[in-house]
């Protein structure tokens, strides 16, 4: 009996110490998130687990909804799910030409709604939206008139123009603007009442960006994904199969589902042996090319580490230089750096300047980071490229 009691006491002590260690690790991970968010001049940081708030920081600017930038695209994807559930769209593989008959001829007849959602439509697109799309009077018409750069369904290419067409598809299929569909069928059931959605001159809500929400309301969308499309009151808003499709690996990229990003538990990057030839063939500025080639045989243990190298080799304005010389020429990161990935551990909506909604299913964690557009934004610091990694580090302590 004495021996048994001793074992029980020892077991309790071990459990207590493990719990204390876990709590300390969790607190340290939360402190890291707070510290990094503040260093990146974040306006909102919200971390929740099972609906319980672990961290909530807001600046005065966060009293108003903050534009999600490209994270808007992830909400547009949810709108497509709403129309699938109602039968207003028949399937993700429905040809766009059934909605816009002018696409029934030529190669565009092969483009499906799914291809618009997973960036494989093949539509011509300038990666920098500011060059071609910002200020365009009718973004849906601009998308419909686009030429094709590749055969539909054959290649992944991040495409703002294709996303804008989705706004038109929702309106054509439902008879209501995408804003009204989302407000009535998604926002209202979730208790989201305050938002702003920018429109083009034709009055169509912009698909590639433009929706503004609070951090708390963004978190409600993350919670909806965790609960597989079911609202807190038990009402199903999105089909479970559709929610699974949202985050399933797409046909042409492991990084994306349907306008939602797939975040691996870990990743490593090394310079490809043919990177110099690619940079030369594409006519990349010699100074930028030389800076990237300084990577040599180094291995970067995360995108954060890789981007820190870019800042070191290209200077504080590395993001602008990289965008101008690499992204605008259609060069993908994977063409320059080999990437090794761990298993997918989280899903995310992400936008320009570091707007994030990260969802970690294993630990029921939802994390939001927002920042307001200001003059003097320093992408190397303020984009908080390591946010998802910090969230996963926290998740590992839960």
Question: What this model shows, in words?
Answer:
There is one protein chain. By secondary structure, the protein is of the alpha+beta class. Helices cover 42% and strands 14% of the residues. A six-stranded antiparallel sheet has the order 2-1-12-11-10-6, sandwiched between helices. A three-stranded antiparallel sheet has the order 3-5-4. Strands 8-7-9 form a three-stranded antiparallel sheet. Helix 1 (2-39) runs antiparallel to helix 16 (387-395) and helix 2 (72-86) crosses helix 7 (178-190). It starts with a helix and ends with a helix.
Structural class, by secondary structure, is: alpha+beta
Number of beta-strand segments: 12
What share of residues is helical? 40-55%
Secondary-structure element series: HEEEHHHHHHEEHHEEHHEHHHEEEEHH
Using the alpha-carbon principal axes, give the shape. globular
Kindly report the spatial arrangement of strands forming the biggest sheet: 2-1-12-11-10-6
Gyration radius, in Å: 22 Å
Q: Determine the mean pLDDT.
A: 92
Enumerate how many helices there are, as a single number: 16
Q: DSSP strand (E) fraction?
A: 5-15%
Low-confidence stretches: none
| N-to-C CA distance | 35 Å
Largest sheet: 6 strands, antiparallel
Give the secondary structure arrangement, pairings included.
Layout: H1 2-39, E1 44-49, E2 52-58, E3 66-67, H2 72-86, H3 113-117, H4 129-132, H5 139-144, H6 160-174, H7 178-190, E4 196-197, E5 211-213, H8 215-226, H9 240-247, E6 261-264, E7 267-271, H10 275-281, H11 286-293, E8 299-300, H12 303-314, H13 318-325, H14 333-336, E9 337-341, E10 344-351, E11 355-360, E12 365-370, H15 379-382, H16 387-395
Antiparallel strand pairs: 1-2, 1-12, 3-5, 4-5, 6-10, 7-8, 7-9, 10-11, 11-12
